[in-house]
Amino acid sequence: MTHAPARHSYALLDGMRGVAAIAVVVLHMPKLFGGYTVPNAHLAVVFFLQLSGFIVAYAYADRIARGMKFGEFAWRRFTRLYPAYILGMALGVAVAVASIRFLRA
Fold this sequence. Notes:
This protein has helices spanning 11-28, 42-65, 70-104. By secondary structure, it is mainly α.
């Protein structure tokens, strides 16, 4: 039985992506952070997307080279991202409802 070769992990890139994600959150919600903004945080959006694209391309390169169809790739990405999307939507609705109730009180 042969094992698949271990994939290289890019811990530094993952960390940089995390910092960029935090900068994007601060950019979009300055009131939550007392009006603080990260200088040039709009560049963190581009940086985050480019790093994410690299990581996804790296993760799927071998499978695509071996014949993975677009539909299978799309389905895998969809099933990986959709639970987080639903959770984010639910939290967003809950915060919106709570905000409306707070403002009416």
